[in-house]
């Protein structure tokens, strides 16, 4: 299990534990824990509705790919720590990372 802290839009933080043996994305984990995110495209990096900011642990994440970078460029509130949750796979590199949900609400 990989412990990850999620900060919702109201600033509330919750520690969640996500299995690292199922090849889940962070988006899928957020949906499983019933966080209010649209994830309209289902994880294809086509909508940016699973936008998150990495508050801690950015240095351990894989680099942005071109598709993710192109989608993030369409957002008005993008920051240097912005990522798409659908493009981050749950593995030990995400252990103890902290993410803030930014994408549109359902």
UniProtKB/TrEMBL annotation:
Keywords: 2Fe-2S, Iron, Iron-sulfur, Metal-binding
Positions of the 2Fe-2S ferredoxin-type domain: 1-106
Keyword Transmembrane helix: no
Highest taxon of the lineage: Bacteria
Annotated transmembrane regions: none
GO annotation, biological process: P450-containing electron transport chain
Single Gene Ontology MF annotation: electron transfer activity
PANTHER family: FERREDOXIN-2, MITOCHONDRIAL, FERREDOXIN/ADRENODOXIN
UniProt record similarity statement: Belongs to the adrenodoxin/putidaredoxin family.
Protein name from the UniProt record: Ferredoxin
Lineage: Bacteria, Pseudomonadati, Bacteroidota, Chitinophagia, Chitinophagales
